[in-house]
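Section 3.1: Structural characterization of target chains.
Under the original work plan, the team committed to producing a structural model for every single-chain target entering the pipeline before any wet-lab resources were allocated. The record below documents one such target. The sequence was received from the expression subgroup and is listed exactly as submitted; it comprises 216 residues.
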Amino acid sequence: MLSFTVRRRHFLCQVIAVEQRGAARVRTHEVVVFAGGETQAPRAADVRGRAIHVLKVAPRNQPLYLKIDGPPPVGFRRLGRRPVALTEALPRTFRTSPRSGEDTLPVWATWSYALGRLALDLARQPAPYRSRWFPRWGSVDARALRAIDVIVARLAEARPVSETTLRKAVLALNRHQAAIDTPGAEELSDKLITLATRGGLDEKLAATVVDRHRSW
């Protein structure tokens, strides 16, 4: 059992398996991070009855059930070798959104990954935002979704739409590629081609520009 601190909040995690891999005998840890975030330092007994922490930030809905190479770094406090029964079965899959496919668990990560994701979870979250152009994208980060809407709206207002105009829109959208999953990418591509065609650009040329410059 381990404890660590993020933004002056305390979390508990449990190493549930350790294995050695390869000739270098690399030790890989399977780790579960529990929901928490108290201001007081926890004890091992405090984990009883807790669920696994599920991320509110990207990759949203991912349970923090991780597979990590190497021992915990400085900053992780050992609370002893005491087994604690989990209150729920370990999840094996998760979906980041209703539109995405299933991802498998445990996720390969680093110890710092857990700290970084929890720091973002503890940060003030933006107000909910519903997209004008993509109303089904409810699980996308609100800030990214608002920025995507602005870029698409500018393209819709452009008259005429040139190859350069469309290319600039695609490159601007590339900054938000982490928020765009595979189904969303195809929907976004179709929307750009439709708006560019409506603005006077040849449809085949519009499709070529989008495919050539997009990174999502």
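The helical segments are 111-122, 142-157, 163-173, 182-198, 203-213.
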